[in-house]
Amino acid sequence: MNRSHRITFIVILIIVPVFLLALFYIDGDFWNKTSTQIWSFSRISSCKTHAQVQDFPKPNIGPFLNGNPPSCTCQNAPPANQFVSKDELEDLQKRRAEEYRQHQIRMGKQNDVLLLAPANTPLQYPIKGFRVTPMKKTLIPGLVLQTRMRTLYKVSLSVQKGVLSVMDVQEGEHVDGQNAINLTISSSSLHQLNDLLNRVTYTSTVYHIKTEDLAYFSFENHEVIFPIVIRRPSVPVLFDSGKDINSQVTILVKAFLRYKELHVLIKSIRQFYPNIKIIIADDSHNPEKVVGDNIEHYIMPPAQGWFAGRNLAVSQVTTKYFLWVDDDFVFLNETRIESFVKILEAVPDLDVVGGEVQGNRFFFRLQYEEGSSEEGGCIKRVRGTHTPLPGFNGCFYADGVVNYFMARTDAVRRVGFDPFLKRVAHTEFFLDGLGDLLVVTCKGLRIGHQKKSSTGKYGSYRHPPKSDSRNKISHHYFKNHLKCIRY
Amino acid sequence: MNRSHRITFIVILIIVPVFLLALFYIDGDFWNKTSTQIWSFSRISSCKTHAQVQDFPKPNIGPFLNGNPPSCTCQNAPPANQFVSKDELEDLQKRRAEEYRQHQIRMGKQNDVLLLAPANTPLQYPIKGFRVTPMKKTLIPGLVLQTRMRTLYKVSLSVQKGVLSVMDVQEGEHVDGQNAINLTISSSSLHQLNDLLNRVTYTSTVYHIKTEDLAYFSFENHEVIFPIVIRRPSVPVLFDSGKDINSQVTILVKAFLRYKELHVLIKSIRQFYPNIKIIIADDSHNPEKVVGDNIEHYIMPPAQGWFAGRNLAVSQVTTKYFLWVDDDFVFLNETRIESFVKILEAVPDLDVVGGEVQGNRFFFRLQYEEGSSEEGGCIKRVRGTHTPLPGFNGCFYADGVVNYFMARTDAVRRVGFDPFLKRVAHTEFFLDGLGDLLVVTCKGLRIGHQKKSSTGKYGSYRHPPKSDSRNKISHHYFKNHLKCIRY
Which of A231, A260, A280 is the last residue before a domain boundary? Predict the structure, then answer.
């Protein structure tokens, strides 16, 4: 074969492979590959090794602990710890830190981590909605390996608060670590491996009614992490709201000294609602009997206070809803409490619906910043509402409403009225309920207010000394883990 | 060039490409590929198209609604609806169905879906721990596209309950659908695209304090779904447990007629705990004054009943813990309530610690099956405990304990004692608290029981007529959405 032939021959030897290689790189990757990458291409061709390629670093997918929030500030509000007496402050701060530590544990903050699903892993797995009952063996749904052919496939799973196993393993199926925290499954057939993954179960070994575990699922150099929610199922608690307003609502009143006003209120209620149950919590010094059909009168030790009375009244309710009224309110011709029920029944998520007293709706929002775990949060009460309640003209979401409101009995019991607060207190209930109670304020749900005629004695309680508000702030400094409060 | 040369030439033309192709299939996939797949190999070479290959079907990743659970059975227990009077049953069932529907909405069952992370997608995204405050713009963490080179990269995101946007978009950055439910980002540079993904924010537009949204994130034919948790942050509620037992614990008693026993109890308490607060809820017909330092006596309307009294007492507590005792118990030399506090302080997750009355610990487990939404659940009380409480010899997790227990005030308030239950009632509290209260029973925490000497009148209340238990079961049929109950 002559020289020209030899050249043609060599040229072909060079051109053909280059031409063919170009085909595989039609999307342009060829031009930014190094020769070593070209020759390792057969490995790149499977997704498994995507993560091995330099420009796809193995991602850090967590768990990342959500760290301590930054310190917060409320302008023009003195630090709450100023209201604690100097000599007590150090001890109090130590106790508050310990109670807060316990609170974080109870709230499951240790499970409050950020997890990411990494790109380009050959693993499929559940990321939400996989819940198990404590100590009960449960199949893990959705575990799949999808990769290109191998001579051997091998995946591993590990957990902390339970054990793993594969159900009814047959001879010839390779499973290591049955009923242990680390499980390894291998097979020469991808189909068989996925069949085994289909039968993987989790059983929690540490009894707890509300906790979480993390499962680590890996194949070769790929690892994913997914959450396992451990929950003891709870029994529903429903109220039979019966057929009429009397089986749906109880009216609650806190009485103190002002019996004249109380009787005016009761008379006005009976005018429109002759049979509805009225619960009266009374902490007067010399309680007078208040009697009548469907009136329950509870006598408290003298001057137990405002929130103790509210909490007592709520504790005795057997209806789905209760209506809160002050002892010096008065029902008017336009006072129709059925409207509250209509709204609450139409929007089951709602917990509290506020009306208006003598035209005053008094609603507010609470601006809350968590703050650092050492200093505590910052809270500020501002006038205003959130968005409108869809479908109910004149109703708006808010964080707090006036003293005339209807609420879901069970929801309010969960929050409660802090019996420590004896006199001026109202916002404090909505502060404790922030994030727990869904509140709206509505126009046109009216009740009247009797003329002020408070006896001297009542007045002395109604208008407490400065020391009271000092104590109150130092109480909130501890109880609500606050750095500052601003009303 | 002669014949033999031509042959060599052709042979080379055939062998070289085949040899080269074989290289790319070194892992054997070549032998199970069809020629059409071979020619489409340049596309297979990128992970993006993995899902296009026949043996990698596009997975169904949810959301899958967790369906209606199957019907349940409790052997030897008559259906609870048999205890409802025939003529009421139909109405009652309708009302129960409606209350249950509302309950499911309140529990967020509509968000209770199963989501899977599909294998081999080029998308990275958050699967857990991404929480936003309602109506507040928040960066979505961890969004990344990892794929091989394209001439153009384009990803889309969509949500339902909020809007998406990319922060400070510069000229030349291509973003469609700012502040809308559908966002599309495109770029000719993968680096720029990921830089834009790094700035994607979510803002919920429907105000709600506890709800969820789902985000759909897609690239070419890949789609993933991840949850967005919408939560209004709540303010901690802490108790200052002070320095001694008196600032940590309040003792609660329900009194009815048996004043002689009550005074014996109080005397025995004062012997060991001279200053601890005692709260007495009294629904006797002719209440006698019970006075003393740190004794609070509450007078209820006559015969309001057992759970109404318990609920009243709990509503008045200002300490972190309370101790429940019956009016005919008696403190013994070995009665040391500090031991309860020690356990509760060491394990913050605990809510209730039960002791033993005259050597009787009376503990039980509740076997609960949810059952279908139409019929309701099945519950069975059986003697027994769960696992031991680590670190406390003789303490075991249980679902219910004896009438002598210490509990976290806030936890028990959340569950409450149903005032409907007037007489024989105890298990019912633990039933309502199932899944909410973490309960243990401990050996050696002793209290005594006074000799039985119940007056005839008391006995008539203590041992109620059959009709009571009929009403009770029909009450639970509705309230706890039960198909059957077995004690």
Answer: A231
Is residue B303 within 8 angstroms of chain A, CB to CB? Answer: no
Find, in chain A, the residue whose alpha carbon is nearest to that of B14: A16
Q: Considering its fold, how many domains does chain A have in total?
A: 2
Query: Chain B: nearest CA to A337, how far in angstroms?
Result: 20
Q: Are residues A277 and A213 in the same domain?
A: no
Inside any domain, residue B351: yes
Domain presence at residue A144: yes
Partnered with residue B228 across adjacent β-strands are B213
User: Cβ-count burial of A133 within 10 angstroms (0-12 exposed, 13-18 middle, 19+ buried)?
Assistant: middle
Distance from CA of B260 to the nearest CA of A (A): 21
Contact A370, A72 (CB under 8 A): yes
User: Which of A113, A226, A229, A237 has the most B C-beta neighbours within 10 Å, making it the best mutation to test the interface with B?
Assistant: A237
Please give the residue that has the higher pLDDT: either B212 or A6. Answer: B212
Q: Could you report the per-residue pLDDT of B302-359, keeping only the tens digit for each?
A: 988 889 999 999 999 999 999 999 999 999 999 999 999 999 999 999 999 999 999 9
Q: What is the pLDDT of residues A266-324, one digit of tens each?
A: 999 999 999 999 999 999 999 999 999 999 999 999 988 889 999 999 999 999 999 99
B positions 184-213 inside 8 Å of A (CB) = 206-210
Tell which residue, B187, B168, B188, has the closest CA to residue B178: B168
State how far the Cα of B83 lies from the Cα of B92, in Å rounded to an integer: 12
Q: Is the pLDDT of residue A335 over 60?
A: yes
ipTM: 0.86
B265 CA to centre of own chain: 39
Residues of chain B numbered 245-284 and touching chain A (CB < 8 Å): none
- Nearest-CA distance from B404 to chain A in Å? 21
The domain that contains A320 carries what CATH number?
A: 3.90.550.10
CA B446 from centre of chain: 33
A487 touches chain B (CB under 8 A): no
* Residues of A in Cβ contact (< 8 Å) with B286: none
Residue A451 to chain B, least CA–CA distance (Å) = 31
B7, part of any domain: no
Same domain, yes or no: B418 and B473? yes
Decide which of B205, B231, B257 is a domain's last residue. B231
- Same domain for A288 and A437? yes
Same domain? For A363 and A430 the reply is yes
pLDDT tens-place string over residues B4-63? 666 665 655 555 444 444 433 333 332 232 222 222 222 223 333 333 333 455 667 778
- One domain for residues A222 and A286: no
Q: By the CB < 8 Å criterion, does B224 face chain A?
A: yes
Given CB atoms, is A467 within the 8 Å cutoff of chain B? Answer: no
Based on the fold, state whether residues A209 and A286 are members of the same structural domain. no
Summarize pLDDT for B166-182 with one digit per residue, the tens: 999 999 899 999 999 99
Question: Which residues on chain B are in Cβ contact (under 8 Å) with A147?
Answer: 119
For residue B161, what is the domain's CATH number? 2.60.40
**Residue A221 is part of which domain span?**
115-231
Q: Specify whether A227 is located in the same domain as A274.
A: no
Residue type, A199: R
Q: Are A267 and A398 in the same domain? A: yes
pTM of this structure: 0.86
Across B374-390, average pLDDT: 95
CB-closest option in A2, A235, A482 to B434? A235
Distance from CA of B94 to the nearest CA of A (A): 11
> Is the CA virtual torsion A24, A25, A27, A29 positive or negative?
positive
Helix (H), strand (E) counts: chain A: 13, 25
Q: In this complex, is the C-beta atom of B317 within 8 Å of any C-beta atom belonging to chain A?
A: yes
Verify whether the Cβ–Cβ distance A312 to B308 is below 8 Å. no
User: Residue B318 falls within a domain, yes or no?
Assistant: yes
Cα A107-A110-A116 angle, rounded to 5 deg: 115
Helices (H), A116-258: 190-197, 245-248
Which chain A residue lies closest to B9 (C-alpha atoms)?
A9
Which one, of A385, A399, A487, lies nearest residue A443 by Cα? A385
